[in-house]
Every structure is written in C-alpha cells, then in structure tokens.
Amino acid sequence: MKFVVNARFLTQNLSGVQRFGIEISKELRKICDNAGFVSPKNILHHDIAGILGARTAGFLKGHMWEQIELPLYLRANKSPLLLNTGNSLPAAYKKSMVIVHDVSPVRNPGWFSKKYSAYHNFMLKKLVPNALKIVTVSEFSKREIIELLNIPENKIDVVYNSVSNEFKQAAGEAVREKREKYALAISPLNPRKNFKNMMLAFEKLGHRDLKLYITGSFNNIYADAEIKRIMGSDRIVFKGQLGDKELAHLYKNAEFLIYPSLYEGFGIPPLEAMACGCPVVASNIGSLTEVCSDAAYYVDPYDVNDIAAGMSEILSNTPLTRELAQKGKQRVEYFNWENSASRLNGIIEKML
User: Fold this and answer.
1) Residues of the chain with CATH 3.40.50.2000
2) How far is Cα 146 from Cα 125, in angstroms, rounded to an integer?
3) Contacting residues for 201 by C-beta, under 8 A, at least 6 apart
4) For residue range 163-189, what is the model confidence (pLDDT) as tens digits?
C-alpha cells in the first residue's frame, strides 16, 4: 500500500463528513490499486466496508483508536501516506494529509458544547497545520482556513462534494405525488442550522395548508418556550434520520427545501434537493452561494421576515419555481464524485 485511508467514518452515523468519506473512498477504490482502508472494529456500514475491502485494526474506538492504534498499525505496515477524511488526524503520525470540511468550531465556538469546541479547536489549530497537505470542500472553506488557522494558501487544495446517485436517479422516476403539501427542512436542532429562525419564519407563512417536514438528528438543545410551542403544532412533522431512498422521495414531492443555515463548509442538502427537482430556498452565505450559484432563492438567515418572504415567493410564483427546478438539475451536474476522486488522487500522487 502506498497510501492508506483512515476509514473511521465506517463506524460513525451518517452526516456530511461521513458522506464525503464514504463516497470519495468508493471512487478512490475504483481508480487506485495502491490504496488501503483501515477502520476500528465497531463498523456500522458493513456493506461499504465490503466494497472498500477495509481492514480492521486494534481494539479501541473513536478518538482513542485514531490517536493510538492507527499510528501503530501504520508503522507496522511500512509507514504509508495517511489520508484522513474527517477533520482530524493522529498527532503521533506525521506522514498525513487531512480533509477539513469547515472550521466552524473556531469561527463560532459558542455553537458547540465546551468539550466538543475544545477538542476541535485543538485539532484544527494545533494538529491540522502539521499535515503535509490540507484539502477542503469549497473555496469559502479554503479562505476560512487561511484566515483562522494561518495556513499558507499553497498548502490547501479544494475538492468538491457531490451527491449520492440515489438522488440523481430519483429525478427520472415516477411523477411527483400530490398527497400533502409540505416544505422540507434538513435541520438537526443546533444553532448553526438556524432552526429557531426557520421555525419562526414558517409560523409567519399565510399558507395554512402547508406542513413542514423536518429530518435530522434531534436533541434537547432548545429550551426556548416559543420554539417548543411551535414544535407542538400539527403543521410540524418530525421524520428523524432517513436513508437516501426515503429522503429522495421527500425531496421529490416537497414544495421546496428550506435551508437557512448560518454557516456551512459546503452544504450537501441543497444539491440533493436540486438533483430531485426540488426548488431550494437557502441562506445568502458564502459557501451556499458558491455551491448553488443561480439555482437557489436566497434569503437573509438573520431576518425572519425575509426567510418567510422567500418561502412565500416560492409557493406563489410558479414560473420562478419551475425555473429554479430546471437550473438546479443543471447545477448539480457540475458536481461529480468521480471527478472529485480523480482530483484528490492527483493531489495524493504528488505526495507519494
């Protein structure tokens, strides 16, 4: 093996970071004969592990495995180059490159628990700068890394995310169902996703026949009485964590995706929606405007009235809705896992 992928993502629940690790690794596996994949033993995604031919090493889990047993495994196997796909890397192994998806714990530490913020600030500020090469997922994140981590521009490359084929295939399936009118939100209950303003904006809508379907992992981060009241409405439907097929079905039949996030390194859900022909209402923040270009309707995420007005415009302006759906399908073709893996492989080859 000339290089090894840290496949710890095989042991983690699926989010954007894990999605990148899985999809980019599947493509690297196709084009690289010299790639190996190593993971802790507590694998959740056994089908993906089989596709990758992933090996397991050690007995520890999580950060402890990454910091202790992974470096031991690498040294016992001729110390190959290590590709880390999930914002972290082992401190005791210097022959590493790392994918940094965003630096939100540095930009906005108050959005996270003290323990999470402390760990990721240490990782980003102390360990990431020691990597041989840093790759990130957007030009926006590259600028953030340069500014907040004080890393030279020539040490950073950009490799874009894409979307799973499940979502692209959904666009060619049966016509949309018309059962219940709903907007869709991919919004775990955390501050960076701007859940409170989204809920307040939805409540302001005059379209009383419209429901809001919300998917994602939920916790008790919000004790706000006003939000609890809105969440108790029969117009709000919590769907929980969904697989790609179920999520694609929701995108395809939604009136629109509402994505008023305050900070994103990339933002995969808007592209997933576009692939399924679903119009997108998104924040006018740097990464989302970079990714969505002219294929989304933009709103000020800090202005509840503007978010509500954006949703109302999509519901009432049929020509605009059709235009955004068409532009979205064109925009999503710009992002491709095969191309991203080919670009990343070229970066790796230069490091070998």
Assistant:
1) 3-162+336-351, 165-332
2) 11
3) 258, 260, 304, 305, 307, 308, 311
4) 988 888 876 664 556 678 999 999 767
Give the DSSP letter string of 186-248. Answer: E--SSGGGTHHHHHHHHHH-S-TT-EEEEES---S----HHHHHHHTSTTEEEEES--HHHHH
Checking 113-119 for CB contacts under 8 A at 24+ apart, the result is 119/63
Pair 287, 265: CB distance under 8 Å = yes
Number of helices (H) and strands (E) in the chain: give both, helices first: 16, 13
Angle ∠(192,48,38) on CA atoms, nearest 5 = 90
Architecture of the 3-162+336-351 domain: 3-Layer(aba) Sandwich (3.40)
Q: For strands 297-299 and 257-259, give the pairing.
A: unpaired
Question: b/e map of 212-249 (b: 16 or more CB within 10 Å)?
Answer: bbbbbebeeebeeeebeebbeeebbeeeeeeebeebbb
Give the model confidence (pLDDT) of 297-326 as tens digits: 999 999 999 999 999 999 999 999 999 999
The letter for the amino acid at 260 is P
Between CA 96 and CA 4 the distance in angstroms is 10
Assigned CATH for 165-332: 3.40.50.2000
pTM of the full structure: 0.92
CA distances from 69 to 4, 63, 298 (A): 14, 10, 46
